[in-house]
Amino acid sequence: MVSEKGRLDSFRWLALAAAVMVYLLIVVGGVVRVTGSGLGCPDWPLCYGRLFPPLRIDAILEYSHRFTASLTSPLVLATAAVAWMKHRTSRRIVGPSMAALGLLAVQVVLGGITVVLETPSWIVAVHLAVALLIFALLLRVTTVAFRGAAPAESSPGVRPIAREATLAAAAV
What is the pTM of this model? Predict the structure, then answer.
């Protein structure tokens, strides 16, 4: 039988990989926005009605964001699934993992709406805010997984920051 520590050893790397990929996805999304490539693929989920983009820099940049999302989404899903199956007793792992998964579904819809409505700034801002919330939740899961099962609040001299982190994430 695998110990709780053994389960956390592999889970922590999955959670970290998901968090790193969400960060990279945010960076790529920023590049798309800064270069004005948001409509490089004017339809969604395809690009000019095709699976792969035409050889135009704006289409390739926009497609790179979609491609990175297609690599990131399964990692977020896997993190939530493993959290649910193997760490169901840890609210500090399951709660944020499930919230990230729920927000991922919202994020996919927002991504499509962003393109269909031709990238209005308020939708782009909401899309970024949701991405940052997903990132914050995955960072929380990763931090808990790397610290182990013992709650940080029980460590001497360590002040709980979950409430402050949640408020900061909501403020974004």
Answer: 0.83
